[in-house]
Each structure stands twice: as C-alpha cells, then as structure tokens.
C-alpha cells in the first residue's frame, strides 16, 4: 500500500460538505469521533461519544457544524499514517467512519448484478463454466431488466414464464419479486476504513470487489448521510450454495467503509445520493487493470424502499444501522485463462470513488493476513467509560 494523501480521500469539493469520521488516538488507546474541516481534524467525542450518537441528532450536520471540538492535527498527517505498513503507532490514524450501527447490506438490487448471481448459482462456484451459462441465461431472460419494477404485475408475469421454462432462481426472486434481500454483512465495529487491508477468505479462488453506496440510518429510520463501501464478495462460496452467504460475505476485514461519512446538508442530499456514480479501479502487481462503475440512478429499488424493508415494526435498530445498497458492477473481464473472468490476486489495490464522497482505497490480502479485529463493543464501552465520555 502506497502512502495515501488528502487527494486520495476528500470529495471533489474538499471540506465544503459536513464530513465526520473516526480516528484512533494512541494517547487514550481508543477512537475519537472527528469533524474534518478545512483547518484540520477536530475531536468532538466529548459531545458525540460515537458516530451512532451523532446520527441520532435531529439534524446531524447542523449539530456537528455547531460543535467546535479540539483540534488533533492535520488531515494530511493522519491520512499518511493510516496504512498498516510503516504506521507509527504513537500517532493518530483513520478508522472506518462507523461504530455501533449494525452493518446491513442489500443484494441483487441491480439487473446486471442479478444476472451474475444467477450465473454463479448455475456454475456452482466454478468460474470455468460461467461464460457458457452467461450466454444461456441472457438468451432466456435478456440483458436489460432495468425498467422492470420489482413486485409489479409485469415482474410476476416474467416470474411465471421463467418457472414454466425451469429457469427460475432464488436470485431472481429477490431481484424482481416484492421482497428485497437484506442481510447482516458483518459484526458491529468490524469494518475497515480507507488505507487498510481488506480481507478475502484464504480458500476462495473466485471473488471480486463490490463498489457500493452505504447509507447511514438512525434508529428512527431517517437517512442522514452516506459513505462508500466495498462489500467484498466470494463468488465461489456463494455460488456453491446460498446458505454459504455468511461465509462468502463475513470474514475478517471483508467489510470496508469510508473514507468519511458525509452528512446530508445543503451541499449533499438524498437526491444527490440517488444520482451518484461510483467508479471502481483494481490494479494488480501483475500489471492487470480493471475498471468499472455503478450508477445508483439505475437501481431497481429506491433507497428509501430498501431502508423501509430493513427497519420498522418487525425489526428495530436502537443504535441505527448502515446499509450497503448493492452494485451494478459485474466483473467479467478475463484476468488469466479465457472465459474464467476476474478474481483477486494478493496485493491488488482497489479504489472506489465518487465525486461527492472521495475515495475508499484498500489493499487485498487474505483475511488471516489482515490486522486481526480485537476492539469490539465491550472494549469501546470500557474505553469511553475510562475517558469519562459515557
């Protein structure tokens, strides 16, 4: 991992928006909630002990903007000290901008990624079979379902046609049926941030990044801001069986969120998020380059619908939650043998970016090589209590 700079982090409009994050403070051996401003990084933990608490404010952006905080340093120096290689443990570094919130993810929310999930299922996790199956699935279903509203009469008619042709799939059920796929991505506090290593299960041989918008939602179901996310995916594990979803999705360092939380204000709104274009770049030490994108405007289900299906009378989140919205990115570019598509190699650098949210940069390693996750909810509560912040 090369040393990151502020240019590798901030949105195109710099600190014009309301930016929050978390920084590890060695002097207290714990995290700080920070406001990132033009004149530095400010510790606001005395007012907001957690990002979750900040998101519970009636107007989080206004609340953060009116809190001065204590300046802890320049953003440049903190960013430069974030990557695990060469980090000075006596100086602050960036963390993922999420803490007590439950980490949720929506799947199969774009037509093109829905087709890839069907292909994975039929290939039984074998990438060598994917190309032939892709052609057959496209012949049966088509490759443009973007105008098909999930749960509509038209969608239900298509469902019956596919059932009659023995072409129905559980992924089509959540892709065009009335109920969205929403699952728990990873344990609370287990996310890695920008500059960190992201993890792949060491037994996986077919996997890919998933560039996504991550919404931050309060316990009342109010969407208050967004960040970028990499919902690291093991295509071979999930392709073998959907019951392996947890093993395909939840491994050490397999949930990356960052670089910062941009709260909704006059400079960035939910409508702006709905139009967000997210870019992806993967560069390997073998010279391989993969580029992709995901446009939230092409999502099959509106973000508010996905949030409504996540929280309500049948499920509550007292500390709020963050929600990965899914991706339209489908990695089909061959990396090695023809027809076998893309899979990660050790030390791939994955950059997920959006003009309004900055860049989330991670180096890919196996999960057992990444920094172990040791600071959980109990450790956070104990640390905040010792600092007399709760």
Automatic annotation (TrEMBL):
Domain of life: Bacteria
Transmembrane regions listed in the UniProt entry: none
MF annotations from Gene Ontology: hydrolase activity; metal ion binding
Domain Fumarylacetoacetase-like C-terminal span(s) in chain numbering: 223-364
InterPro entries linked to this entry: FAH (IPR051121), Fumarylacetoacetase-like_C (IPR011234), Fumarylacetoacetase_C_sf (IPR036663)
Entries under Pfam families matching the protein: FAA_hydrolase
Family: Belongs to the FAH family.
Name of the protein: Fumarylacetoacetate (FAA) hydrolase family protein
Protein's organism: Bradyrhizobium sacchari
